[in-house]
Amino acid sequence: MSALDTLIRTEASLLLRNPTALFMALAFPAVLLLMQGFVIPGTREAVTGVNDPLLDGLRVIDLFVPIALTVALGSVALTNFPSAIGGYREQGVLRRLGSTPIGPHRILASQLIVSAVSLVGGAFIATGAAMLLLGAHGPQSVLLVVVTFGLSAIAMLSLGSIIAARAATAQSANGIGMLVFIASLFTAGVWTPGPLMSEPLRQIAGYTPLGAASQSLSAAWYGQPFPAVQLLVLIAWMIPSAFLAFRTFRWR
Q1: SS3 for the chain, per residue?
Q2: Which residue has the higher pLDDT, 174 or 4?
Q3: Whole-model pTM?
Q4: Domain, as residue range, for 65
Q5: How many domains does the chain fold into?
């Protein structure tokens, strides 16, 4: 078994032993979606007031399903991942690994892999809960949803890497990440789904990373026109974020 395999198993084990991180990764998107469906009045009624034939026959809660996928992206990429790396920096793990054949880069790779798997798991759980418990519609284009979700995941992990690159402690990483995450929930449409936003606000939200992810996933989910602009926005966030994180990363 290679060193990377061992580290991946270790990181996965640590995640399973952390109730808060496990909840944020796997349960939070589904819980938020189910609360929208069962607690907030009117979310299980048909969409009205929107002049879009592609939304005919959909309920308000249906619009929240792709948004729940973005919640899975943000909760892992902006909170769990930076907190884990900040904790390793605080404990001197990154510095100590730098003097061993394992190297600190492998722990970063293992944490990224475990984070990616956990956010995919959170997305699957949220989607399954929506379809089984709320009777939500499945995606119109599964392939486009998968491609869009993958690109969104890379973009969000790149953004989270900036926090992970500089945060001195797990607490500071979690605090910064949570602030960015809460702000991103608004642009993602958690409070008001994208199709129900005013057009100026929707345009602005589409240029934020989680807003672009939400709009592109919604377009793929409901068979709307190909979200070329939103996908380009994700790439525009991804490349500079990854470069900045790489250039500013602190090992100690």
Answers
A1: CCHHHHHHHHHHHHHHCCHHHHHHHHHHHHHHHHHHHHCCCCCCCECCCCCCHHHCCCEHHHHHHHHHHHHHHHHHHHHHHHHHHHHHHHHCHHHHHCCCCCCHHHHHHHHHHHHHHHHHHHHHHHHHHHHHHCCCCCCCCHHHHHHHHHHHHHHHHHHHHHHHHHCCCHHHHHHHHHHHHHHHHHHHCCCCCHHHCCHHHHHHHCCCHHHHHHHHHHHHHCCCCCCHHHHHHHHHHHHHHHHHHHHHCCCC
A2: 174
A3: 0.90
A4: 3-248
A5: 1
